[in-house]
């Protein structure tokens, strides 16, 4: 369930992180993706009735007190100036505006509330931590006001994205789609699909089609790059009609359809080739300086045992596939351990809604 109701009336929504398996970052460029909900990590938002409307800071992510000036500076270097509180506020604002624009009545009897959050998603690892918080907040608001039917699942990813865009976060719809629907989802964001229905063409796939996957990341990562900064230059070139960027992005998008076919045929070797190609095309578009030495080191760890690997998102974590099976996976874990990298088996989150194309 997207929302659980506690005995005291408190609403709790837990939204998992995600892995972009194929096609990213073309979701922000009228492309296509295959993505999965990553149950290894999650963000959780609680909505509790209260006399006044309140947004409660998370003591770890939004600290206002420190033991020393050095501790304050250390926190800012590792986490930046912004926690998740602004995401709760932006989501509440955009939710109200969305309802007002569409004539959706919010019953006054629902009353005020307090919103709080916590998260286990590693910060700036390309695992969609910000949208998980916003999506969980939206789930709680929809249930609190009883308007889940008035804002159906296909409309929710764009609503979540609009809240993030209010904060200057540059991204595509991929993360929000899979976090709304859960499970494993194929997505088409082409102009034709978007014009036809006002949102993308989404299809839920059976997670059992996936071969075993592995997540590689650094447990104590250095501060990553904001995804908006990672995407900005390529986005401007794409908008300006740069032929090279547009051609390469189309090739990236085409990998999603090929990946769905490989999944349905249970062809792990073909899927591995597609993942490697996705990374190769990304490096051509963005350049290795933007992709980053740390990310390429994780890819190299996977490649050292013959595993396929690509970025899960904008950077900070890698998804790996060992097409040769368990013995290759064991060597991958050893290679990661030798390099001080975390390596976990990917656990796919449950489907929350059925996406029917």
Automatic annotation (TrEMBL):
<dbReference type="Pfam" id="PF00288">
    <property type="entry name" value="GHMP_kinases_N"/>
</dbReference>
<dbReference type="InterPro" id="IPR013750">
    <property type="entry name" value="GHMP_kinase_C_dom"/>
</dbReference>
<protein>
    <recommendedName>
        <fullName>GHMP kinase N-terminal domain-containing protein</fullName>
    </recommendedName>
</protein>
<keyword id="KW-0067">ATP-binding</keyword>
<dbReference type="InterPro" id="IPR006204">
    <property type="entry name" value="GHMP_kinase_N_dom"/>
</dbReference>
<keyword id="KW-0547">Nucleotide-binding</keyword>
<dbReference type="GO" id="GO:0005524">
    <property type="term" value="F:ATP binding"/>
</dbReference>
<feature type="domain" description="GHMP kinase C-terminal">
    <location>
        <begin position="261"/>
        <end position="336"/>
    </location>
</feature>
<feature type="domain" description="GHMP kinase N-terminal">
    <location>
        <begin position="90"/>
        <end position="183"/>
    </location>
</feature>
<dbReference type="InterPro" id="IPR020568">
    <property type="entry name" value="Ribosomal_Su5_D2-typ_SF"/>
</dbReference>
<dbReference type="InterPro" id="IPR036554">
    <property type="entry name" value="GHMP_kinase_C_sf"/>
</dbReference>
<dbReference type="GO" id="GO:0019287">
    <property type="term" value="P:isopentenyl diphosphate biosynthetic process, mevalonate pathway"/>
</dbReference>
<dbReference type="InterPro" id="IPR053034">
    <property type="entry name" value="Glucuronokinase-like"/>
</dbReference>
<dbReference type="InterPro" id="IPR014721">
    <property type="entry name" value="Ribsml_uS5_D2-typ_fold_subgr"/>
</dbReference>
<dbReference type="Pfam" id="PF08544">
    <property type="entry name" value="GHMP_kinases_C"/>
</dbReference>
